[in-house]
Design a protein that fits this description.
This protein is an alpha/beta fold and about 750 residues long. It contains 23 helices and 33 strands. The chain is globular and about 85 Å long.
C-alpha cells in the first residue's frame, strides 16, 4: 500500500522522489542533494561541491529519509545517498534539524570565533549557516586546538586554525589541478590540511582553492585586509591573457579593482579561472602606467593636453600616410578598437596593418581560426594530439579540459620540442627539434591513432604558431586533420587574435614582419610594449627607433619612451567596455570596471577623436552603442611575407611564453612575479648539448645569434630535444634571441 504510483510522464532512467512533500523526477544514480538543488530546496553543506568528487565528511547535509513507509534508523548524508523510487526526504523535520544542529556544534568546537578580524567575514559559508543552525552559547569549555600556518606562496594566505577539514581544497588540487599538492595529515581532532613538503603551491590554478574554501582558512593574499565584501561592487569582465576568454568578475571599491573572482560559464571556464587572470589586476597600478598624454620635444618627454597630443599624432599620420605608414596592433586588442584601427588604416591608404606581431613565420598568410570542436566538447574526446604546445601555461583551463578527457579514458599524444609537464599521462610522445615537428606529424602511428577515434582533436599550440617553422607545422597539422577526420584546434596567438582577424586587422600589403624588415617612415603601435612583445625584438626596436611613432599605450615604459614621439594613454581591458572573440569563435563582452587612471581614455574614444579630426569615414558615431551597431566583419586578402631563414651552426630555438610574462599587466603583477613558475631568463639545454658546449647546470653562458648576444643562466634538462635550446619569452634578457640559431659558450 505504501508503493508510489507510476508516473506516466517520468523520463526514462528517472525515479520519483518526494523532498519535503514536493514530488520530483531525479536521474537514477544521482544523489538526494542533486535533486534538491535542482528543485531549489536548500540543504546545508560544507564539503559538497558540484565540480568535485563526493567526500561526505562534513555531515552538515544530514536529512531524514523514508522508503516504503519505513524510516531510516539514522539521518543520511544528502550528498552521498542515491535516490530511489518512492524515496521520501525530509530536510526540515525535527530529526533532520537536530542532526544538522549537532554537526554545526561539533564544527564550531575548535573553530575560532574571530569573525570580525577574519578576511572571509561577510561571505563565509560557516558564518551564514551558523546563524541558522548554531547555538547561542557554546557548551565546549576546553581549550581550542591551534594549527600552525604554512606558507603556500605569494597568492594564497592561510589561517589553518579556521579549517573545518571539508577537504574541498585537497580534492581541487587532486581532481581539477592534477598536482596533488594538498593533503590531510594526522587524524581525528588533530587532522591538518597542508602540503607534504612545506613548499608553495605551484599549480597555475591555485587561486581557486580560495573560492572553494567555505571558511577563512584559505584567502586571497593580495586582497587580504584591503576591503570587506559588502564594500565591493561586481563588474562582469573577461580574462585577457589567453584566447579562452574566461568569464570573471572584477570587484571594485571606489573605482579601484580590489580582486578578481570567477564568473560561471559552463561552456567556457566552468567556475574556475587561472591565477594569471585572477591576480594580473595588480599591474593596473604599476609605477610606469601611462596616465597623461606625453609628447617628445628635443628628445625630452613632457606632459601635454589631449588636443596637443592628438595634433602631434595627426601631423605624423598625415606626413607619412599610405605605404610609408605601418600599423602594429597587440593581439589582445578588443574588437571595437580593432575595427576602428582597420578603418583608420583604410582612410590613410595603408595596407600595412597587422596584429600577428609575435609570430615569426607568416609565409603561408595564416590567420587565427576558430576551434573545429567546442571547448566543452573537448572533455568528450577520446584521442588528443598536442603539437608544439606547453598547454598548461598557454591556456591553463584548456589544459584542464584535456585532463578531464584523459580522466574519462582519452589517450593523449604529444609532439613537442620540450617534454613539457602536464597533469595527465601521455600515451606516446615525440620530443624533437622545432624543424622536425612537421615531418613527425606524418608518422603513420599518429594517423592510425587519430583515425581510429570517434572524437579526436589536434591542438596546435603557441610554441608551434610562433616557431620559425610555423607554416610547415600548420600545413602538416591541417593535412593530418583532413586525413583522419580529427578536429583541428589552433590556439590563437593572443587573447583576441580571432576577433581582430574577423574585423580586418590584417595586411593587404606588408605583414608585421615585412613592415619591420622594410622600415616605414612612421608607425602606429597599439597596446604594445615594444621591448618585449615582438617576434624579432632587435629588428622591431631598430625599425621603430628610426621612424616616427604614435604609441597608444597602457604603460609609459622605457622601451615605449625610447621609440615613440607621442604616447596616448588608453585603458586596459579591466577599465573599458569591450568585446573579445575567444578561440571557439564566441563573442563575449566585458564591462568597464576600474576607473581610468589620470587622463587615460578608452581606446575607442581616442581613436574616434583621431579619426574624426582626420575626417576619416566610419567615425561618425557618438557613443559605444553607435560604434557597435556599425561593427561587421571585413574580408581581407592577406599578404604573406617570405619565410624566415634558419641556417648556420648552433641550436634551434624552442621559444615558449613565460606563463606570467605574456603581456604588460602580468609582467607588472608583483604576486605573479614572485610565483615559483616565474623562473626568470635562462636557457635550457639537453645534457649532451650542454656537455658539447662545456657549460654547467646553474652556470652562466654567453648566448649569441646573428643579431645579438645575451648572458643567461644555464639549466640542463633531458626534457629538451637534442639540438634545441629552450628559452622563455617575455624577459628583456631573452628578447634578442628570438630568431635564427644560437651558439652557447661558457661565460
Amino acid at each position: 500500500m505504501s508503493a508510489q504510483p507510476v508516473n506516466p510522464n517520468l523520463p526514462p532512467d528517472h525515479v520519483t522522489v518526494f523532498i519535503d512533500g514536493v514530488e520530483l523526477a531525479a536521474p537514477k544514480g544521482s544523489m538526494i542533494i542533486h535533486a534538491a538543488d535542482k528543485a531549489g530546496i536548500p540543504i546545508p553543506r560544507f564539503c559538497y561541491h558540484d565540480k568535485l568528487e563526493i567526500a561526505a565528511n562534513c555531515r552538515m547535509c544530514l536529512v531524514d529519509t523514508e522508503v516504503g513507509g519505513r524510516g531510516a534508523p539514522k539521518p543520511s548524508p544528502a550528498c552521498a545517498t542515491p535516490v530511489m523510487d518512492g524515496l521520501k526526504v525530509f530536510t526540515r523535520n525535527e530529526k533532520a534539524l537536530k542532526a544538522q544542529r549537532n554537526v554545526m556544534e561539533f564544527l564550531l568546537i575548535n573553530h575560532p570565533l574571530d569573525c570580525p578580524i577574519c578576511d572571509q567575514g561577510g561571505e563565509c559559508e560557516l558564518q551564514d549557516l551558523s546563524l541558522g543552525y548554531g547555538r547561542s552559547v557554546s557548551r565546549f569549555a576546553e581549550r581550542k586546538r591551534v594549527v600552525a600556518d604554512e606558507d603556500l606562496g605569494p597568492l594564497v594566505a592561510t589561517e589553518m586554525t579556521r579549517c573545518i577539514q571539508c577537504t574541498r581544497c585537497v580534492r581541487f588540487t587532486a581532481e581539477i589541478a592534477g598536482t596533488y599538492e594538498l593533503g590531510g595529515m594526522q587524524r581525528g581532532e588533530n587532522l591538518q590540511i597542508g602540503t607534504y613538503d612545506g613548499k608553495p603551491l605551484t599549480t597555475e590554478l591555485s587561486g581557486n582553492v580560495i573560492d572553494v574554501c567555505p571558511v577563512g582558512a584559505l584567502t586571497n593574499k593580495v586582497f587580504r585586509f584591503r576591503a570587506r565584501p559588502w564594500e565591493l561592487i561586481a563588474r562582469e569582465s573577461l580574462g585577457g591573457h589567453d584566447a579562452l576568454g574566461s568569464n570573471l568578475f572584477h570587484h571594485l571599491r571606489r573605482g579601484d579593482v580590489m580582486r578578481t573572482v570567477p564568473r560561471d560559464n559552463e561552456a567556457v571556464n566552468e567556475c574556475w579561472i587561472s591565477d594569471r587572470d585572477r591576480y594580473s589586476h595588480q599591474g593596473l597600478t604599476a609605477d610606469d602606467r601611462a596616465v597623461h598624454p606625453l609628447v617628445k620635444d628635443g628628445g625630452q618627454w613632457r606632459e601635454a593636453s589631449w588636443d596637443e597630443a592628438l595634433d602631434r599624432a595627426m601631423t605624423i599620420l598625415r606626413d607619412n600616410a599610405a605605404d610609408e605608414l605601418g600599423v602594429l596592433v597587440h593581439p589582445s586588442t578588443s574588437n571595437e578598437e580593432g575595427a576602428l584601427l582597420a578603418r583608420l588604416a583604410e582612410a590613410l591608404g595603408t595596407g600595412n596593418l597587422d596584429h600577428r606581431i609575435a609570430q615569426r613565420d607568416l609565409s603561408d598568410g595564416a590567420i587565427a581560426e576558430a576551434f573545429a570542436m567546442p571547448v566543452a566538447e573537448l572533455e568528450q574526446a577520446d584521442v588528443v594530439l598536442l603539437v608544439g604546445s606547453n598547454l598548461r601555461h598557454e591556456v591553463p583551463l584548456l589544459h584542464h579540459r584535456v585532463r578531464q578527457a584523459w580522466k574519462r579514458g582519452a589517450k593523449v599524444y604529444v609532439v613537442n620540442p620540450v617534454d613539457f609537464e602536464f597533469t595527465f599521462d601521455i600515451e606516446d610522445k615525440a620530443i624533437v627539434a622545432p624543424s622536425k615537428i612537421a615531418e613527425t606529424l606524418q608518422v603513420a602511428e599518429l594517423g592510425d591513432a587519430l583515425r581510429g577515434a570517434k572524437h579526436a582533436a589536434i591542438i596546435v599550440g603557441a610554441q608551434a604558431e610562433a616557431s620559425a617553422h610555423a607554416a610547415d607545422i600548420r600545413k602538416a597539422a591541417a593535412a593530418l586533420a583532413a586525413d583522419t577526420g580529427a578536429s583541428l584546434c589552433r590556439i590563437p596567438h593572443g587573447a583576441n587574435a580571432l576577433g581582430l582577424s574577423r574585423h580586418g586587422v590584417l595586411p593587404t600589403s606588408r605583414d608585421a614582419n615585412a613592415m619591420l624588415a622594410e622600415r616605414r617612415g612612421a608607425y602606429v603601435i597599439y597596446g604594445i610594449e615594444p621591448g618585449l612583445d615582438f617576434a624579432d625584438q632587435a629588428q622591431a626596436l631598430q625599425a621603430l627607433g628610426a621612424a616616427q611613432v604614435v604609441a597608444f599605450s597602457h604603460f609609459a615604459c622605457q622601451s615605449t619612451r625610447s621609440v615613440a614621439d607621442v604616447i596616448l594613454p588608453i585603458g586596459a581591458l579591466a577599465e573599458i567596455d569591450a568585446t573579445l572573440t575567444n578561440l571557439e569563435g564566441r563573442d563575449q563582452q566585458a564591462t568597464a570596471a576600474g576607473k581610468l587612471p589620470g587622463d587615460a581614455r578608452s581606446g575607442w574614444r581616442v581613436l574616434r577623436a583621431l579619426g574624426g579630426a582626420l575626417e576619416a569615414p566610419g567615425f561618425e558615431f557618438t557613443d559605444l552603442a553607435g560604434l557597435r551597431a556599425g561593427l561587421q566583419g571585413r574580408a581581407v586578402s592577406v599578404a604573406a611575407s617570405a619565410a624566415p631563414v634558419v641556417d648556420g651552426d648552433g641550436f634551434e630555438l624552442a621559444v615558449s611564453q613565460a606563463i606570467y610574462r605574456v603581456d604588460g599587466l602580468t609582467r607588472r603583477a608583483a604576486a605573479l612575479q614572485s610565483h615559483p613558475l616565474t623562473l626568470g631568463p635562462r636557457i635550457v639545454l639537453h645534457p649532451d648539448d650542454a656537455a658539447a658546449s662545456q657549460v654547467a647546470d646553474g652556470g652562466m653562458a654567453k648566448v649569441s645569434n646573428a643579431v645579438g648576444t645575451a648572458t643567461l643562466q644555464v639549466a640542463i634538462d633531458d626534457r629538451v630535444a637534442p639540438g634545441a635550446a629552450w628559452v622563455e619569452s617575455g624577459y628583456g634578457a631573452t628578447a634578442a634571441l628570438s630568431v635564427g640559431k644560437v651558439k652557447v659558450v661558457a661565460a
